[in-house]
């Protein structure tokens, strides 16, 4: 199905398949599987069985399913799988605003809506581009490893800012934030790369969060507490401002 065009009129062919494992996770799966096999060979069942289950958990964590990405100029798609844990008005990170000498003007100053998506260890951890365009900035900042569900994790945790700019000048910034057990943010892109909307841009190992900074004058189409899917869920429509209410049930 990869690369095939599908639509809301029924065009295209689909079928269920096991999601592939991202190469970043295969080495961890091989290590735990090898330990499980060796301990099973020596009949150390108290170690072999836990390692076998750990192998399945590692492979599930690094799963990399295909996604059907909406193709429309006015949509911003979710860069992460997970729970919408915070929606708040903030100033964008200074690293995404200042003139860094690259020729990219960065995000304008002023309050914008930040949508925070918390990824538990059960979510897919491959992050995707919310819009298509040129990667203007990839800024890594070392920091702490607090619970990524906390608001202050945006300023204190280890994190990586990414800025993507379209040809028409629209720029979207988002931040990958390491969590309580996450210990590495892995980028797949660098400044100057051209990416398509929904393209894989990186991953965070073992529980984390992604913050997305919407342009001024744009409200999210997702609700607090909603589950979103990277590359598929429409996070916002450009220029659309509307209160949307939901009921948990």
UniProtKB/TrEMBL annotation:
It catalyses: a 1,2-diacyl-sn-glycero-3-phospho-L-serine + H(+) = a 1,2-diacyl-sn-glycero-3-phosphoethanolamine + CO2. InterPro entries: PS_Dcarbxylase (IPR003817), PSD-A (IPR033175). The chain crosses the membrane at residues 28-61. It is an enzyme of class 4 (lyase). Pathway: Phospholipid metabolism; phosphatidylethanolamine biosynthesis; phosphatidylethanolamine from CDP-diacylglycerol: step 2/2. It is found in: Cell membrane. Keywords: Cell membrane, Decarboxylase, Lipid biosynthesis, Lipid metabolism, Lyase, Membrane, Phospholipid biosynthesis, Phospholipid metabolism, Pyruvate, Transmembrane, Transmembrane helix, Zymogen. Is synthesized initially as an inactive proenzyme. Formation of the active enzyme involves a self-maturation process in which the active site pyruvoyl group is generated from an internal serine residue via an autocatalytic post-translational modification. Two non-identical subunits are generated from the proenzyme in this reaction, and the pyruvate is formed at the N-terminus of the alpha chain, which is derived from the carboxyl end of the proenzyme. It comes from the Bacteria. The modification Pyruvic acid (Ser) is found at residue 208. The record marks 207-208 as: Cleavage (non-hydrolytic). Belongs to the phosphatidylserine decarboxylase family. PSD-A subfamily. Heterodimer of a large membrane-associated beta subunit and a small pyruvoyl-containing alpha subunit. This is Phosphatidylserine decarboxylase proenzyme. It comes from Altererythrobacter arenosus. The gene is psd.
């Amino acid at each position: 199905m990869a690369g095939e065009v599908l639509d809301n009129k029924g065009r295209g062919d689909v079928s269920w398949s096991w999601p592939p494992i991202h190469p970043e996770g295969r080495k961890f799966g091989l290590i735990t599987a090898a330990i499980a096999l060796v301990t099973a060979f020596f009949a150390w069942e108290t170690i072999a069985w836990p390692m076998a289950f750990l192998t399945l958990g590692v492979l599930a964590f690094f799963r990399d399913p295909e996604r059907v990405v909406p193709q429309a100029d006015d949509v911003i798609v979710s860069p992460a799988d997970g729970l919408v844990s915070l929606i708040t008005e903030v100033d964008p990170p200074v690293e995404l605003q200042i003139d860094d000498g690259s020729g990219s003007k960065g995000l304008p100053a002023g309050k914008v809506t930040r949508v925070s998506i918390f990824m538990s260890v059960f979510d897919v951890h491959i992050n995707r581009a919310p819009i298509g365009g040129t990667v203007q900035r990839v800024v890594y900042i070392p920091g702490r490893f607090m619970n990524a569900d906390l608001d202050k994790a945006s300023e204190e945790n280890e994190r990586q800012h990414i800025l993507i700019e379209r040809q028409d000048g629209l720029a979207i910034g988002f931040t990958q934030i390491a969590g309580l057990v996450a210990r590495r943010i892995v980028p797949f892109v660098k400044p100057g790369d051209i990416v398509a909307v929904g393209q894989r841009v990186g991953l965070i190992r073992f529980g984390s969060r992604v913050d997305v900074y919407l342009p001024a004058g744009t409200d999210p189409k997702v609700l607090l507490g909603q589950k979103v899917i990277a590359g598929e869920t429409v996070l916002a429509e450009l220029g659309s401002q509307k209160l949307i209410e939901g009921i948990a049930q």
